[in-house]
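Here's what a typical entry looks like (Probable [Fe-S]-dependent transcriptional repressor):
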Amino acid sequence: MVSLITIRDAIALQGIAELNQLSRQFDQPPALMQAMLKQLEAMGKIERVEADSSCLIGNCKDCPDGKKCLTEAYRIKKHISV
């Protein structure tokens, strides 16, 4: 099983990583990967990035019935030091 540290490191290396991308990369079910990402988010290690609006017409292969892509993407949370 993949660890939270491994997921965090993968996001750091990629800059921004999508839920489905990480699920395929680590061969884990999307529901489990989503739960782990939510845990990292609650711990303040990562933050959710707003959905990409580049697929405005819904013609992607993965879009069911022509709906726009709704992706969950995450990046490392930037810590502001004062």
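The chain has a mean pLDDT of 83.

More examples are in the samples folder.
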